[in-house]
Design brief:
Blueprint (H helix, E strand, L loop, with lengths): L3 H5 L17 H4 L5 H16 L7 E2 H7 L5 H13 L3 E4 L11 E4 L2 H11 L22 H8 L5 H13 L2 H13 L5 H14 L9 H17 L5
Antiparallel strand pairs: 1-3, 2-3
Helix pairs in contact: 3-5, 7-9, 9-10, 10-11
């Protein structure tokens, strides 16, 4: 029987290699874990090896976006297993607010110490440097697409993009951005107007192409501009 790990791997291994530092006792600690949990844990350490600035903390949404198959429910179950086994530590532990950034620490002595310091208030979130992986050129994420098509990525914009990425499918985000760029309206509020129209009216092949759809997007855009003058 093929394990879940084997099912997610390509039939042909890459000829390119990268160095990944793993805890010396990782193999022993993985004994009894499901294939998905092992795959998620390896992805966590792979992200640490790909980051631009050294860190041992990974945000949950980045880890899920890094997985080879976009099945959030599947990886959430694997994460629950890793948290239960104490191999990863999550802050905040409740993870009930979908808008709240979730930080994942490794259960190493250093990671555990930083996690406890944050939990007890001896370390602030501003002092925690989360991993910022180098973008995968084969899979540009929403942040990369924003910078390429709309403008510089600020912390405020990043939070808005993260929230929208949790609300709308990735394909919608890409297509709505493409639609806005094709109209030469490089503004995220306009992209949000397109997404809102698709969500409320439904999406088919005519959305984003007909004049009536364009007018609907513009009207939603005007309404959003009236609600706030700050433009991401």
């Amino acid at each position: 029987m093929i394990s879940p790990v084997e099912q997610t791997l390509s039939n042909e291994l890459s000829g390119t290699y990268q160095s990944i530092q793993l805890p010396a006792n990782l193999l022993a600690r993985c004994d009894g874990l499901s294939g998905d949990a092992i795959l998620l844990l390896l992805a966590y350490f792979e992200l640490l090896s790909l980051q631009e600035v050294k860190s041992d903390v990974v945000e949950l949404y980045i880890l899920l976006d890094h997985m080879p198959i976009a099945e959030d429910t599947r990886w959430q179950q694997a994460l629950a297993e890793l948290l239960e086994e104490g191999l990863l530590l999550a802050y905040p532990q409740s993870m009930e607010d979908p808008q709240q950034a979730v930080l994942l620490f490794p259960a190493t002595p250093e990671g555990s110490q930083r996690f406890e310091a944050l939990r007890e208030g001896n370390l602030s979130l501003a002092e925690v440097q989360a991993a910022n992986p180098v973008p995968n050129p084969d899979k540009p994420n929403i942040f990369t697409l924003y910078e390429q098509n709309i403008g510089p990525l600020t912390p405020m914009v990043a939070e808005i993009l993260k929230a929208d990425a949790e609300t709308y499918p990735e394909s919608w985000l890409r297509d709505a951005m493409q639609e806005a760029v094709s109209r030469n309206i490089r503004n995220w509020k306009y992209v949000q107007a397109i997404l809102k129209a698709w969500q409320e009216k439904g999406r088919d092949s005519t959305h984003g192409t007909t004049q009536s759809a364009l007018e609907r997007f513009r009207e939603l855009y005007r309404q959003q501009k009236q609600q706030g003058n700050r433009k991401p």
